[in-house]
Write a structure and sequence with these properties.
about 325 residues, Rossmann fold, seven-stranded parallel beta sheet, five-stranded parallel beta sheet, 17 strands, binds flavin-adenine dinucleotide
Length: about 325
């Protein structure tokens, strides 16, 4: 029998489609709840979401709290946070996991503040550890300049809250025969509770191949400054039919958009071939592509940490290596 306070996952829907990250979190939630021998429960806010509740149960949810209201079809900051915080106060979950989409990143801190607990953003791993026989959630993030993995704990307050970026965790297997319970919740929402109203969500069209879908990704870092900008990376990507990504300094320099940033606060990708150019290899960056099949790195510093995670390393000046590589590839691709 499962006892103790449950593990919760907030499962985001948009236009009545589940976001992948919620499903990915269910896989982790299942692992944590089995370890604690407690139920895995999900919170689903929207309208006419019954089909989605069935999907969540197939992915491992023992209980789906279904909050339905036509006014909640689209994400509403204040009201979603109020609904979730009220449910937490009523049911006292031990752990709450939220996918760090743009919406999840808006929701999680609001909820944490309302229920007065801690929140660890952009975790790259989560597991149950013990202190004097008392289990707790270990929340792992890169820290200290990205050179160390740090374990964050929330010893006193509950729930222990963490966000995880899409793509960091793997999706669990779907099992249609799994059964769960749907609990319909009808919160008392007044029109005046919508201090800010989201009227419509418009999806931005991706330019080029989105990095999370590409087989090959070429990513550039601050080292491109020496080459006067990102052009050589774009040229290499073009020859290879690859998508272009980069590090945070590349975004700060406006060589690439936010959408192309790879790493703990950016995207997690796992292409067949990942080429890093002029990036030192801080863990904040490398956590975003470690599951790539083949990793190749170009950097002038032979001691750069990027070479520790690379299958192929080219040590040298990118201003010499890239033009040569591009010319040679043009002959064969
Ligand atoms: C909470 C937090 C979250 C973060 N999240 C992210 C994230 O998601 N993604 C991310 O990328 N960063 C993130 N960062 C920043 C991260 O810690 C690093 O600062 C960043 O990744 C470094 O980028 P870089 O490798 O491009 O630059 P640098 O570390 O400056 O590396 C530049 C590299 O270029 C090489 N180089 C220079 N000139 C040449 C040349 N001519 N030829 C060849 N090589 C050359 C250098 O040897 C060096 O290795 C985060 C930081 C924090 C605190």
């Amino acid at each position: 029998m499962k006892r103790g306070n449950p593990v919760w996952v907030w499962t985001e829907q948009r236009n009545n489609r589940l976001m992948d990250v919620g499903v990915e979190l269910l896989g982790k939630g299942l692992e944590l709840s089995e370890r604690l021998n407690v139920k895995l429960e999900t919170i689903l806010i929207g309208n006419q979401t019954r089909k989605l509740a069935d999907e969540l149960m197939a992915y491992g949810a023992d209980t789906v709290y279904m909050i339905e209201d036509p006014r909640l079809q689209t994400y509403q900051s204040d009201v979603y946070a109020n609904v979730l915080a009220d449910l937490i106060k009523e049911h006292s979950p031990e752990i709450l996991l939220i996918g760090a989409t743009n919406i999840g990143m808006d929701l999680a801190p609001r909820v944490a503040a309302k229920v007065e607990t801690g929140l660890t953003a952009h975790c790259v791993d989560l597991y149950i550890d013990e202190d004097n026989g008392i289990p707790y959630l270990a929340q792992v993030v890169p820290g200290w300049g990205g050179n160390l993995m740090v374990k964050i704990v929330c010893p006193e307050k509950r729930p222990q809250m963490a966000t995880v970026r899409p793509g960091v965790l793997e999706k669990p297997a779907r099992n249609e025969s799994r059964k769960g319970e749907i609990v319909k919740v009808t919160p008392d929402i007044k029109d005046g509770d919508f201090k800010v109203k989201t009227i419509e969500m418009v999806e931005e069209k991706a330019v080029g191949i989105p990095i999370e879908e590409a087989d090959t990704v070429v990513a550039g870092g601050w080292g491109l400054f020496s080459a006067g900008g990102f052009k050589p990376v774009e040229e290499l990507a073009e020859v290879l039919g690859a998508a272009v990504g980069g590090t945070r300094p590349a975004v700060d320099k406006e060589w690439i958009s936010d959408d192309q940033m790879i790493g703990q606060s950016g995207k997690t990708i796992n292409p067949k071939l990942f080429i890093s150019v002029g990036a030192s290899g801080a863990m904040h960056f490398t956590t975003g592509f470690l599951r790539s099949k083949v990793i190749m790195a170009i950097d002038q510093n032979p001691d750069a940490p990027i070479f520790k995670v690379s299958d192929i390393g080219l040590v040298g000046d990118l201003r010499e290596i890239l033009p040569y590589l591009i010319e040679e590839l043009k002959k064969v691709v």
